[in-house]
Amino acid sequence: MYSSIPEITLHDGLTLPAIGFGTYKLNGNEGANAISSAVDVGYRLIDTAYNYENEGTVGEAVRRSSIRRENLKITSKLPGRYQAYDKAVPAIQESLYRAGLDYYDLYLIHWPNPDQGNYLEAWQALLDAKKWGLIRSAGVCNFLPEHLEYLEEETGEKPSINQIELHPFFNQEKQRIWHENNNIKTQSWSPLARANEVMQNETLKKIARQHNKTISQVILRWHYQLGSIPIPKSSSPERQLENISIFDFTLHEEEMGMIARLTQSNGRINDQDPATYEEF
Ligand SMILES: NC(=O)c1ccc[n+]([C@@H]2O[C@H](COP(=O)([O-])OP(=O)(O)OC[C@H]3O[C@@H](n4cnc5c(N)ncnc54)[C@H](OP(=O)(O)O)[C@@H]3O)[C@@H](O)[C@H]2O)c1
Q1: Complete DSSP assignment for 113-131
Q2: Could you tell me the distance, in angstroms and rounded to a whole number, from the CA of residue 191 to the centre of ligand 1?
Q3: Which of 84, 144, 215, 251 is the most exposed place for a label (fewest CB within 10 A)?
Q4: Residue range 104-133: average pLDDT?
Q5: Average pLDDT rounded to a whole number, residues 169-182
Q6: Active site residues
Q7: Ligand 1: nearest atom to the Cα of 279
C-alpha cells in the first residue's frame, strides 16, 4: 500500500493531489473499468479532454466509484477548434454534458495554436466559466512563457497550471523555473514518456535498484521532487498501484542530477513544439 498523497495548492486556492491519473485512450466500458480501478487504487485527480472522446467514460467511472464527486478533482480541456469565445462557452457546457457533471475542478486550453490567434478569447471564456461556477480553476497546456505573459497582460489573470510534456528525456528545466517564478504549477503529461526506451535506460535502472523500486516509480518520484504533478496513464490495476506508490522514498540530490543529464534537446516524443504544432 502507498503512503498518503501530499496535496498541492494552486494560486487560486484549489488543492490537487501531487499525482493524478491520465485517461488518454481509455474509452468505453473497458475505459470506465480502468478509471474506476484507478479511483479504487487511490487516485483522486483524473485528467480527460474533449478530444479524447472519453469525458462520458470518466463521468461513468465517477458514478461507479464509491468516492463522492466532491472528493475527486476532474480536469478536462478545450479543443483548438473551439477557441473563439462564442464557441468556447458552448464547448465547456458540452464537455460537462458529456461527462454528466455539474462542474469541472480544472479546465485547460489544450494547445495555444498561436498562429490562429484565438487563445486569448478561449482564456476569457474559461474565466467567465469560472465566474459562472462551471469550472473551479482555469489553466492551460503547452503554453510558452510568451503566451502566458500575454494572457496576464490582457486579463490580469494567469493560469493556475500549465500542463506540459515532461519526462526524463525532455525535462523542461527553463519552462519549469519560469512557472515557479510566476506562481504557476507545472503538470507533466506523458510523464513516463509513454513507456518508450526510457524504460530500458541504464541510469534509471541503477537508481531503481538502489531504492528497490521500479523505473516508473523512480521517474514519477523525480517529477514529484521537481515540483511537477505527473498524470501517468495505465490500463492495469497493478501498474496503477505501482505508479502511485512513490511517497515512501526520496531520490538524493546526486540521483536527481543523474536524471537531469538524460534530457535531450530533441527529446520530445512526437516533436510537438507548441510554437508551431497545432491541434484542433
Ligand atoms: N495536454 C496535453 O497536450 C496532453 C498530451 C498527452 C497526454 N496528456 C495526458 O497525460 C496523460 C499521460 O500521458 P500518456 O498517456 O501520453 O503517457 P504516459 O502516462 O507517460 O505513459 C502511458 C504508457 O505507459 C504504460 N505504463 C504505465 N505505467 C507503466 C508501468 N508502471 N510500467 C510499464 N509501463 C507503464 C502504459 O501502458 P498500460 O496502459 O498498458 O499500463 C501506457 O502505454 C494522458 O493519458 C493524458 O491524460 C495530455
Answers
A1: -GGG--HHHHHHHHHHHHH
A2: 7
A3: 84
A4: 98
A5: 98
A6: 52
A7: 3
